[in-house]
Amino acid sequence: MQQSASSRPLVGVALVVCSCLSLPFGAAVAAQLFPVLGPWGVTSLRVAIAALLLVVIVRPRPIRWNRSQWIAAVFFGLSLAGMNGFFYAAIDRIPLGPAVAIEFLGPLVLAAVLTRRLADAAWVGVALLGMVLLGVDGLIGSEPLDPLGLVFILIAAGFWAMYIRMSARVGAIIPGSSGLAVGLVVAAVLLIPVGVPAAVTVAGDMQLLLLAAITAVLSSVIPYSFELAALRRLPQRVFGVLLSLEPAFATLAGWLILGQSATPLRMLAIALVVAASVGTTLGVRRQRRRADAESDRRDGADPDDETGPFTAPIPLPE
User: Fold this and answer.
1) Given its phi and psi angles, is residue 216 left (phi above 0), alpha (psi -120 to 50 degrees) or beta?
2) Do residues 138 and 145 make contact, with C-beta atoms less than 8 angstroms apart?
3) Cβ of 267: how many Cβ atoms within 10 Å?
4) Taking the CB of residue 243, how many other CB atoms lie within 10 A of it?
């Protein structure tokens, strides 16, 4: 049975929440491999395993693609490689919760640029306040933030914003998950120089290989597939603010798996980002209901309806 239009935003919200839950737990597992493989080695293995899994499952046929589809997939792969590599390099130096909070500046700025409603801007402000509190907690708490780790996570934030835009572009012009599969292959190829030593290390250790596979599934296959599907159902600005749930889950993962503390200030920040996510969710439901009511009164697309991946696609060379 085909989903009703009014249910599509709720499905998109659920997909983003599942992605936010999966990613930090995958990162927490990955952090346990850093002493042996290094952050870039873990990144390369994770992306390569995820690419292999998706190619087998999806069976993409890029030979039929046109030039625009190939360009989008290559840029998508570049964003995946940069976002993942610099993020892992950062959490090798700073705690997981603050790292995700600071990295969120990328999609947060993107959401602020794309928003056109005062209520949306207010929720972006609430989420930003939560990010600031998490940053303050990292500065004055028992775990000060390493300067080089801050540089790495800010670079990752830029690649994250690029990933959101390119994921929307890929979802718009490449059917199914083929674009994701090929994008991961591109990222794996870009990371080969740092991945060969790690592959040699894990080749004779099944435990390390299993942890790398778990990391790939939790940090790449599940979240990227869900986010690609979510961007077909939600405006990019709403998608960006909903990702504010991720610092909360990252703090939880860091506490459960890595033994990283959760201070009262950090918990307050979590409450703020969750509030921003809830407010945005309620807003998109009201927006969809108004759009559905308007479409019943007239033919044609609602000019204020930004749902789906076609919202302001990134300009690419043709």
Assistant:
1) alpha
2) yes
3) 14
4) 29
Asked if 131 and 102 touch (Cβ cutoff 8 Å), the reply is: yes
Q: Is the dihedral of CA 229, 232, 238, 240 positive or negative?
A: positive
What is the residue whose two structure tokens read 């599509």?
A: 8
Instruction: Give pLDDT tens digits along the chain (318 positions).
Output: 444 444 567 888 888 888 888 877 888 888 888 888 889 998 998 889 889 988 998 888 888 899 999 999 999 999 999 999 999 999 888 877 778 777 877 877 777 777 667 776 787 788 778 878 877 776 676 666 788 998 999 999 999 889 888 988 888 888 888 888 999 999 999 999 888 888 888 877 888 888 888 888 888 788 878 887 887 788 766 776 776 677 777 777 777 766 666 678 777 877 787 777 667 666 655 665 666 666 655 555 444 444 433 333 333 333
Q: Which amino acid is at 125?
A: G
- For residue 66, give both structure tokens: 């046109």
Q: Give the whole-angstrom CA distance, residue 177 versus residue 161.
A: 20
The residue ranges of every structural domain in the chain are 5-297
Any idea which residue has 């603050």 for tokens?
98
Residue with tokens 């360009």: 71
Q: What is the DSSP letter of 243?
A: T
Place of tokens 């939560």: 130
What distance in Å separates the CA atoms of residue 279 and residue 266, rounded to the nearest whole number? Answer: 20
End-to-end Cα spacing for the chain: 37
